[in-house]
Description:
Layout lengths: L11 H15 L4 H13 L5 H32 L3 H31 L15
Protein name: DUF4870 domain-containing protein
Organism: Amphritea balenae
Keywords: Membrane, Transmembrane, Transmembrane helix
Amino acid sequence: xxxxxxxxxxxxxxxxxxxxxxxxxxxxxxxxxxxxxxxxxxxxxxxxxxxxxxxxxxxxxxxxxxxxxxxxxxxxxxxxxxxxxxxxxxxxxxxxxxxxxxxxxxxxxxxxxxxxxxxxxxxxxxxxx
Length: 129
């Protein structure tokens, strides 16, 4: 059975937000984050609640990524870099944390494609003020 495109609630803004989040993680770190911030500033008062929600959640996850992966990795490196086991522990931490954020991004992209909201670790979407 073919699905009618009019029956599906899909937002291009949600798809762009989740795609930029994954590009930030996997392809162009920093550059995609700047693009994500620019799109957020431009569309933060949009009427598209699904797109605004995914945009907000992508920025929240990017902030947590910076804190946990970069900050945690550097902190762990400074604490245990004297030992070979410490270096291995730091690499394992970075790989596990990065993979976790990539999996959250894939889940968010799947939710954006299906037209659903995405709330990982958050109370919900920001209101349109």
